Structure formats: C-alpha cells, structure tokens
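Re: the multi-chain job from yesterday

Posting the exact lines I submitted so nobody has to dig through the queue logs.
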Amino acid sequence: MQVRDSLLEGTKMSAKAEVHFIGTVLKGSEEQAEVRVFPEFCAGLKQITGFSHLIILYWMHLRDSKKERKTLLVFPRKHAINLETGVFACRSPSRPNPIGLCVVELLKVEECVLTVKGLDASEGSPIVDIKPYLPRADCIPDVRVPEWTTQGPTT
Amino acid sequence: MQVRDSLLEGTKMSAKAEVHFIGTVLKGSEEQAEVRVFPEFCAGLKQITGFSHLIILYWMHLRDSKKERKTLLVFPRKHAINLETGVFACRSPSRPNPIGLCVVELLKVEECVLTVKGLDASEGSPIVDIKPYLPRADCIPDVRVPEWTTQGPTT
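And the result, structure tokens for all chains:
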C-alpha cells in the first residue's frame, strides 16, 4: 500500500485497487438480459432465488479509456438538458470508475446464468458484483431530485 | 486485454480492471459521516446539491485480502440466521470485490467534503463512486425478500 494524503486519512492507503470480474453479460437487452457468473464464483449465488430483485454492478468496458475516465463534467442530453453536470451528479457512463449500477428483476436462475429484466448493460460487459435488493436499505421513495431526472430514460 | 472465455463471450476480455479511488471516508458514523473527494475529482460534484440522496460505492479496505475475497458462502449471523448463504445473496463485506453500497442522505457539501447520513463505512475507507439516487430507477418498494432480511440491520 502506498501513502496518499496519509496525514488527512490517518492511514496508509493505495490510490487504486483491483476488481476481479465475476461474470459477464451474455445477452444485453433491457427486457431480458442474461448474466453468466464464472464457474469459480457460482457458489456465491446460493439462496439468491429468495430475492425478486438484485443490484448489479457492471464494468462499462466501452468507457474504460483514459479519456472517458478523466471526464468529470457532462451534459445529460438524453434528458434534454443542457446543464453542465458533474459525473457524480448524474449516471453518465463516462466517469473515473466506469461502474454501472442497475436494479434488476431476477426472472430465472439456471446453473450459473441469471436471466434478469432491466439491465442497461452492453453484451460482453464484465460483472463486478451482485447484491440482493433490500427495500429497507435501498428504497427511499420520498427524495428530492432535479426536474430533468424525471424525464427521459430512468438513469 | 487478455483472453478469457473468449469463445463464450465473443470478445477478448481481461479478467480484471483497476479502480481509482476518488475520495475517502474522513469520519465514519452512520448518523453523520464525512466523505472527502480528492481535489482532482472535485469538479465531478457540480450540481450534486440538487439531490437529497446519493448512492455511495466504497472500497471495504479492511476486507481486501486474498482470504476475504475468496469467500463465497457466509452465515448472515447479524440477522440471527444460520443459513449458509452465497455472498451475492447477502450484503456480506467479504466478497470477491469488496465494494460496499449505501444509499445516503446528503446533508451538506462544503468544497470537496460531503456530509451524509446512513453511510455504513469505516473511517479511511476509499470511495469508488458517487451516484445520484434516482427513485424512478432505484426505488422498488414491492419486492420479494427472504424473511431474515426484514430483521436486524438493514443490510
């Protein structure tokens, strides 16, 4: 581990880490996508059918370039807005870490393949993590958002 | 990029990638935590005050070891359950990629420091990403979960 701002952080800390892909998007479709978990991680799916919804973190590999990862300001034009917006204030795929997040419905599990609805990932996108959707923690209906987020695509 | 299951995936794909930490948890407290975004990423916060809630992805650095990252099965004992559960079917901090996810309330932004409520991260945990919470995409109240998730801590 290397030192970074150790005075402020109080601990020695590396400025980066390694993610290990646990699977891949076999078929990319919002209506019905297929996620294949690599065999060596498949045991981690045990009991997953108890949940109707999951949070999928995936690697937006088409945006994994120096240029895209340096992007900090964008115009969310899909939402018809011309307001310069920080990447941490929108769901732009161009961001320092190209990690996409989707809440999906789990339709089917067959061996190591999950069929899900609502995954906005490209075919071939690596999967970083799968978490169960827990409404007590993850669902907050009464929040404040800017007007532009209520129009156009959901993310 | 290295080959991995290229026949199945149809594309050449590395099995890992690099995350660049964008900040750190200055003060870890569920009631009121402070997240410092490193100065070089601070521009990405533009317009963030339009949102009352954020999704924070952080690196659970205390679980970033070979052993913890090999863990695929756990017993969610905090939920008083003795059922062997896959790490992708619970929110265990031991998992192949130690990425934590919390929906937090944004209380205050001062320069590059966010004060938030509901962050279940340790002091010194690196921050991987910050995303606005969009209820149209992220809030699904009517889901099915196992009984044990309705008791104990929310995650």
